[in-house]
Amino acid sequence: MRRILYTIGFSLVLGSSFSCKASSKEDPLVALLSSPPVVSSVTPQIGSPAQNNLNAIYPATEVIIKGENFGVDPVVRFNDVVAAITANLGTELHTRVPDGAYSGFITVSKSGGSCLPNSKQGANCSGTEYFIDCYAITNKQYGSEIEIKQGQSLSVEFGAIETKAFHTDTLLGARNLIIGCQSVVTVRVFSRSCQATDYVLQNDPIIPFPAGVATQFYITANSATCSLVL
After folding, report:
1. What is the tens place of the pLDDT at every residue in 139-195?
2. Do domains 37-132 and 138-229 have the same CATH topology?
3. Is the dihedral of CA 193, 195, 200, 202 positive or negative?
4. Domain boundaries, the chain
5. Distance between CA 82 and CA 96 in Å, rounded?
6. Running DSSP on this structure, what letter comes out for residue 38?
7. Measured at the alpha carbon of residue 193, what is the angle toward residues 171 and 73, in degrees to the nearest 5?
8. Selection from 221, 43, 218, 199 nearest residue 135 by Cα
9. Tell me, what's the pLDDT at 25?
10. Which CATH architecture group holds 37-132?
11. CA nearest 214: which of 148, 164, 156?
12. How far is residue 44 from each of residues 83, 100, 113, 129, 178, measured CA to CA in Å?
């Protein structure tokens, strides 16, 4: 009887030992390091790089990325532009919209990982859409943006030295904005990464707009009716 009990006990101990050895192969730390990061939210999801224009300076939008498994040395990108990480709190990454950023994707990749160009896909990569808005950072000081679409014409009334904000739709091809006005106008045009080009005190300017993006711009006129043709 004692031999039977001894055999049973030995078998239980031996089985337990094999079980421990089997489970040790699945190291949770190794699994964590090899699994991809997860981006659950980005706040805000609309922002701007730093703007230093002729009459205003705006800092880059601060962005908080929440998620998990970011690792100890993650890389944040706005499309292909790397952004500096100001704080890594484990489940939160703090950063700012970098110079040259444009609408597309914000991504996090772990050390040794990579994201495909202009994509949220890749090895050890996660991300979501992000939108660059050059006007929102001003708290829309000139009122709501007026949209002008490709092939459209608008007639716009301006009061005494008044500025209005506009944006195009996404242009299928390069176009010229043709402005006809009863007064000289000043036009500020933003690139997709919010760099401003000013056309100061122009008579009926013709301004080139690039293909594939929605362009934001301001027009300042003095007590005039202006026609816009795109």
Report:
1. 999 999 999 999 999 999 999 999 999 999 999 999 999 999 999 999 999 999 999
2. no
3. negative
4. 37-132, 138-229
5. 10
6. E
7. 125
8. 218
9. 54
10. Sandwich (2.60)
11. 148
12. 15, 18, 25, 11, 35
User: Tokens at residue 176, please?
Assistant: 């010229």
CA–CA gap between residue 214 and residue 166 (Å, rounded): 10
> Using one digit for the tens of pLDDT, what is the confidence trace for 51-100?
987 778 999 999 999 999 999 999 999 999 999 999 999 999 999 999 99
What does the block give as tokens for 214?
């929605």
129 contacts: CB under 8 Å, gap ≥ 6: 45, 104, 105, 106
Q: What 3-state DSSP class applies to 157?
A: strand
**138-229 topology per CATH:** Jelly Rolls (2.60.120)
Helix%, strand%, coil% for the chain, nearest 5 = 15, 50, 40
- Strands, E, within the chain: which ranges? 38-43, 46-47, 51-52, 57-58, 62-68, 75-78, 81-83, 85-88, 92-96, 104-115, 122-132, 146-148, 153-158, 162-168, 175-181, 185-190, 196-202, 206-209, 216-221, 224-229
Would you say the pTM of this structure is higher than 0.90? no
The single residue listed with the structure tokens 């919209």 is: 97
Q: Is the peptide bond before 28 cis (omega within 30 degrees of 0)?
A: no
Please report, for residues 37, 93, 150, 224, the alpha-carbon distance to residue 79 in angstroms, rounded to integers and kept in the order given. Answer: 17, 17, 26, 41
